[in-house]
Amino acid sequence: MADLQAIVDSVYYDLSDRIGEGKLADYIPELATVDPKQFGIALVTVDGQTHAAGDTETAFSIQSISKVFTLTLALGKIGDGLWKRVGREPSGNAFNSIVQLEQEKGKPRNPFINAGAIAVADVVLAGHLPKEAIGEIVQFIRHLADDESIAIDQNVARSETQTGYRNVALANFMKAFRNLDHPVEHVLGVYFHHCAIAMSCRQLAHAGLYLASAGRNPLNGGSVVSASRARRINALMLMCGHYDGSGDFAYRVGLPGKSGVGGGILATAPGKASIAVWSPGLNEVGNSQLGSAALELLAQRTGWSVFGQ
Ligand code: DON
């Protein structure tokens, strides 16, 4: 058995002179105020061991990583009915692109591009007021991470509410195609707030453990989803989790992963571990530059890959 702590330490050490690389997401003004010189790696194995290096206790804006959790909730509510509303194909486009949405009559390509996640938020909202739906999402993530301290960063939520013009456009477009049941402002309220949830690498790796462990949380034995659903969520992460960078991420890392513009990435090594990395600087397609590099090195050094050794 490889010494995982030594591998995590070596990945951190080998990349430490690159801390600060990449560009902050400044289209959400609050995210541009984050110190770019931060970098953390946390890994939780399916038997409950945590290995960490760097800034793994600092909470950051999980942004699009939250879409994995809202997808899990929406599938729990309406199961395969979700696929009438959202597709399961990689988009090959930017996360906030509107182009395909017109061609494909308001049905987003997948649940991880912004339009798809907005449709998922509409599903989670059914039967609730927006603040109840937001509460349900936060509560679900606290349960997964076994940590009641996880909360929304209200400054980030406000900042995105004030400047999220593209998301307003995407939501209105889907509403025009009758792919949103609720008022646009309510759906976006849910979406902006779940994107603004703040978590540390350690909390995030812990929350993602069900994806590495056949749908169960091995730390408390509880079942989160069925094994087949966990497998399918991982498939979507692999194909769509990095937007138009998904092919490159699969090629370099070979693990399902979901990125966020806060600079975090949650990755799954099925049967082995859940891994969260964070460094705020992004590459040209909006994924953490150092985080991607860290996962590439980690996958090489552990031999973990969904494609074999
Ligand atoms: O809607 C947005 O633009 C952000 N709340 C989330 C985008 C995001 O994290 C894309 N990921 N790399």
Automatic annotation (TrEMBL):
What does the record give as EC number?
3.5.1.2
Sorted alphabetically, the keyword list is: Hydrolase
Q: Name the enzyme group at the top EC level.
A: hydrolase
**The keyword Hydrolase appears for this protein:** yes
Supply the name of the protein: Glutaminase
Biological source species: Phyllobacterium zundukense
